[in-house]
């Protein structure tokens, strides 16, 4: 059963800064850093799409991000540091470290891009024609990084393993899936998670010679395409995925093949889902319908839940002595789930998001990026 949810108005303490970038933004990523040391993010990357031969990967620097300025909600305009032309639409972006990032292309290529001290970007390495369908180039839909390996998947159903240190393609699973693979991430050093257009979540073990998934998870009676996924940063068995219909699916991959819960959410395709990296009872999603949602679960003993369009109370005193992972409670009415739309509803698609501490960056078809601060994530 899919549970409908409702959301509340944005909190007044939120600060939203919009930056017009004159291109549709397909992907955004914060440059990695240590949250314990760097409490305020500094640099983010964007990738564009639907601009024919003019698509670009760009790096941006926030203005003054000192804590005193942050506390005053006074952000300077993000400044373009550098950019580089990119062949085809940017389908995915991932930082490898503070100097390199990897980009996936709609033309089937994967590129490693290096940032130089002179604030320029160059191509450090490129794998051409990784994804092909019927002798034509096919989009590389997603990449994942686990040093020294990059994994790529595409609309051709192929899964590749690439070595950053040698520049070699170490393994290719030709047509590993009979349908398009839409997202990928590492579950461990040797295991990968993918979602596909048939509505399946799959686990792959790269130590095996065969290209068959070792576990397959699906939805009973439904083959709604799954477009994005993320895993809980502290409990790797908990996986969230977003669908073409805009619903949020939560799996516990230790328990059966069906989702623990399905929540009806956005009115359009869900393009990205992200657990907060350090406070994972907070989750964020964005959608084709132009919405950007913050999902928050309470840890209180008495929690309000979402059932239909009414808010109900449910006591969990019998569980008080045991920590509860609310994301895998089978009945979502047992959790205090609050959903906040961080931006005004409507408008063009919100395509991508990333989180760092109390800050979120998202990119859209509005030819703008948005930086949201003071998320209230604790």
UniProtKB/TrEMBL annotation:
SUPFAM superfamilies (alphabetical): WD40 repeat-like
Keywords linked to the UniProt accession: Nucleus, Repeat, WD repeat
Location(s), subcellular: Nucleus
Keyword Nucleus: yes
Keyword Nucleus part of the UniProt annotation: yes
Pfam families, per database record: WD40
Chief location bin: nucleus
The organism's place on the tree of life at top rank: Eukaryota
InterPro entries to which the protein is assigned, alphabetical: WD40/YVTN_repeat-like_dom_sf, WD40_repeat_dom_sf, WD40_rpt
SMART domains assigned to the protein according to its UniProt record, in alphabetical order: WD40
GO cellular component: nuclear pore outer ring
Name of this chain's protein: Nucleoporin 43
Taxon lineage: Eukaryota, Metazoa, Chordata, Craniata, Vertebrata
């Amino acid at each position: 059963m899919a549970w409908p949810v409702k959301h509340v108005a944005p909190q007044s303490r939120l600060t939203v800064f919009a930056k017009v970038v004159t291109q549709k933004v397909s992907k955004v990523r914060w440059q990695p850093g240590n949250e314990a040391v760097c409490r305020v993010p500094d640099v983010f990357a964007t990738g564009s799409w639907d601009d024919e031969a003019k698509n670009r990967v760009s790096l941006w620097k926030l203005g003054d991000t000192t804590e005193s300025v942050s506390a005053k909600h006074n952000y300077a305009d993000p400044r373009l540091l550098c950019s580089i032309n990119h062949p085809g639409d940017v389908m995915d972006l991932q930082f490898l470290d503070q100097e390199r990032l990897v980009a996936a292309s709609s033309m089937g290529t994967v590129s490693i891009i290096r940032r130089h001290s002179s604030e320029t970007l160059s191509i450090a390495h490129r794998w051409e024609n990784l994804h092909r369908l019927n002798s034509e180039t096919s989009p590389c839909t997603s990449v994942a990084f686990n040093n020294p390996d990059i994994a790529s998947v595409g609309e051709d159903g192929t899964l590749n393993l690439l070595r950053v240190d040698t520049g070699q393609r170490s393994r290719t699973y030709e047509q590993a899936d009979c349908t398009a693979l839409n997202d990928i991430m590492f579950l461990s050093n040797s295991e990968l998670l993918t979602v596909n257009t048939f509505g399946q979540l799959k686990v792959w073990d790269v130590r095996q010679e065969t290209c068959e998934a070792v576990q397959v998870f699906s939805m009973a009676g439904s083959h709604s395409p799954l477009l994005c996924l993320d895993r809980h940063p502290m409990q790797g068995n908990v996986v969230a995925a977003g669908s073409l219909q805009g619903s949020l699916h939560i799996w516990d991959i230790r328990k059966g093949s069906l989702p623990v819960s399905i929540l009806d959410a956005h009115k359009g395709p869900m393009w990205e889902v992200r657990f907060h990296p350090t406070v994972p009872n907070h989750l964020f999603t964005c959608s084709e319908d132009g919405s950007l949602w913050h999902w928050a679960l309470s840890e209180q003993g008495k929690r309000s839940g979402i059932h239909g369009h009414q808010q109900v109370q449910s006591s969990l005193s019998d569980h008080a002595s045991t920590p509860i992972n609310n994301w895998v409670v089978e009945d979502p009415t047992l959790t205090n789930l609050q959903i906040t739309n961080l931006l005004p509803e409507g408008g063009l698609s919100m395509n991508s998001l990333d989180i760092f501490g109390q800050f979120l960056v998202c990119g859209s078809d509005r030819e703008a990026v948005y930086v949201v601060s003071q998320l209230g994530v604790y």
